[in-house]
Amino acid sequence: MSGLFSGHLDFVANKKDFDFEIDLYELTPSGHYVQLAPFWTRASYNGHPSERRLLTPGARVRLDFKSIRLMSRQLQAGSRVVLVLSVIKAPDRQINYGTGKDVSDETIRDAGAPLEIKWYGESYVDLPVGTKG
Fold first, then answer.
1. Which parts of the chain register pLDDT below 70?
2. What was the pLDDT predicted at 86?
């Protein structure tokens, strides 16, 4: 694999915004995981980093993304690629509670109902895979 990965997320969320991360790993035949290229973004800034576009709670969203970290790795024969899609809620990172306010001004008191996301099967990831030549 060499290049940038990209994809399309198709979902409905009950919030105006959320932060997500996509992590790719090589799972080797011996059972070891090797992290390939993490990607994270705020949904409201995805694709247009200088302009925030809030989500409409309850509306279906089709969000295209492209990673920004170049990766290049010769995968071992028999390896698998594992993708982990997660919402960022780590205590060591800024937490986006999805209110639409400036995230720096949000607190847990603003959060309201927990974030719920319904994912659709039209979501996919394109990997930059070539053949050894």
1. 131-133
2. 95
pLDDT at 48: 85
In whole angstroms, what is the distance from residue 31 CA to residue 85 CA? 20
DSSP string, 5-35: -EEEEEEEESSS--EEEEEEEEE-TTS-EEE
Q: Are 41 and 19 in contact (CB under 8 A)?
A: yes
Q: Determine the 3-state secondary structure of 87 from DSSP.
A: strand
C-alpha distances in Å from residue 110, one per residue of 97, 104, 113: 7, 12, 9
3-state secondary structure of 109: helix
What pTM, to 2 d.p., does this model score? 0.88
pLDDT value for 131? 65
Cα separation, 53 vs 63, in Å, equals 12
Sheet (strand 19-27) strand order: 33-42, 19-27, 80-87
What is the spatial distance between Cα 6 and Cα 83, in angstroms, rounded to a whole number?
A: 12
Distance CA 116, CA 99 (A): 13
* 3-state secondary structure (DSSP) of residue 80: strand
